[in-house]
Design a protein that fits this description.
12 helices, two-stranded antiparallel ribbon, about 20% strand, 16 strands, about 35% helix, homodimer, eight-stranded parallel β-sheet, about 350 residues, TIM Barrel, alpha/beta, 2 domains
Amino acid sequence: MVPFGISLSGPAYGQQRGKGCSPALWKVKGLQEGELLPTRAGDRQGDGRKEVKKGFPGWEGVLRAVEMNRKHFCISEGWAMFRVQMDGRYSEQLEARIAVTGSNLCVGLDPRIEKHGNEIGEVERFLEKVVEETVDKVACYKPNSAYFEAMGPEGLAMLKRVIGRIPDDVPVILDAKRSDIGETQRRYAQACFEFFEADAVTINPFMGYDSLEPFLGYEGKGIYLLAVTSNPGSADLQRRESGGRKIFEFVGEFAERALAEQRAVDVGLVVGLTNAAEEVLAGLPDSPLLIPGLGAQGGDLSSLAGSVRSAPNVVNVSRGVLYGDEGTPGARANHYAMEISRAFRGAC
Amino acid sequence: MVPFGISLSGPAYGQQRGKGCSPALWKVKGLQEGELLPTRAGDRQGDGRKEVKKGFPGWEGVLRAVEMNRKHFCISEGWAMFRVQMDGRYSEQLEARIAVTGSNLCVGLDPRIEKHGNEIGEVERFLEKVVEETVDKVACYKPNSAYFEAMGPEGLAMLKRVIGRIPDDVPVILDAKRSDIGETQRRYAQACFEFFEADAVTINPFMGYDSLEPFLGYEGKGIYLLAVTSNPGSADLQRRESGGRKIFEFVGEFAERALAEQRAVDVGLVVGLTNAAEEVLAGLPDSPLLIPGLGAQGGDLSSLAGSVRSAPNVVNVSRGVLYGDEGTPGARANHYAMEISRAFRGAC
């Protein structure tokens, strides 16, 4: 199996999307002409496998690029849509997506039903519009389960449809902050990864490393553990010292341990921008970070500038994109994506 | 407003339930003949208020009892159903319920759909039967959200129906272990208390005291904070030492702080039986405890014997009642209720 590759979609979808596609570098391992590339389950292209052949329109440029360099090739702009092959690890998918879009912005889908006439249908149309306007400017989306749960089961059915409409190459992080143990936790993993088909999920690690177990076996998926959240109350437990170390550093160890144990899932960390001081980041491993707190919560990106990290990190904005005062969600996403890029270029 | 009283239901419902009702002591504050007692929102009896009058069948005995003692009276067995007035604080409701049933058993409603032909309808019938068989032997029920979420939105719609069918005087603890901050956490509170109409909910306190804020204003409701869970991994963070105290003791302080601040909600604690050593209980305030870990998890009730506590505590059994090897759910609930009573009599 090719652990990481590309797949092609038909002309209609490609034409629609092709215009906005920028040339981008991709990692490719051992790609051969004529080889069958497995694609992601739920792929719209039939049996989930695509034959790699030179005759396919738009493909020639890619193969030439592959021949130029076995490790990387360049996707040239064209009518055909090139999508990230979703069989890689979660962090590889996210990294590829950040490379394609040049954006580290995660847009939080936290819809407030009272702003939409208390109508679930209106919320759905709003989110569809937000995704349509912002999709080329974001690394990923992060719907927060709470807003949908408060709408009752119909809200959750709507969440599933919203996730289903997000293109397969855009990772979806379900912000659920779940925690439980054993068989119960396994049901949460089922709900997040199998029912909602999220690519990653946030987890509250307070119950300990063994509580993560049911999530660790999911290939190609990610989990983000709460390490230091963006509220003042994160000082109450997370930032407390224990034996010369901080509690959140032990959470960081959970991520390192899963990596050392070669678990199928990738383990990232949630670090609130408002509390992401240099010494906080210094105490955490180079795992993918999910960084909330920009925008309405007032976090300052300069705090990231001193940190040199290689894992794919994303900064989340929810209210600032969905319900900002000026412009459209698309314009606001663009603004935040550029602001984050400037800060990350300073850092990396 | 009478902070704690009783209400009456119609004959049909009373006849169905009356047979199993045992005489029990109730606390009554300032109850007067002819007084209008506010009843719980969602009450099936119309406008949510019942007039107290001697002419109502079955009422005479109660009034006589009230006259005997202004603080307590005895409900005699009869065709009319006497229900706890749900306007008191959560801990008062739970205490009254424990007094009525003589049981500190909490039955965990954790249905495994694969044991019911993977049919949500079958799960619903099973839970209905479990509640019917066990209701007179339990202090409360604790459905765990994970099992219902794994069934998708229809599973959650079913959970709402199941909760709706549990008599109003039996507290329902929604085991959701939610955690978030601000507006997001407020949506979780809405989902738990307003959509599902749970009487109490479990919360993961890792994000700090301020994260609890949206739950603290709900009158007559309860929250249980995870303090020491029943898994070995509870040692990873919860039982770590910080400045001469344990992390779970700081969680205990959250409960004390809410009490000191006279918040509307009652704050209890989750303490896993397997880890409820004497020194653990000694480090926690006298808040209502929710104690999982009996039955399949193999916890030992003798660990509770040395602890003298006055708050209403309940011990949860899920699998042991729902899917035990011997007898019916009713017989198994009876067995566990008696086992817990023996242990608690030793303790209190």
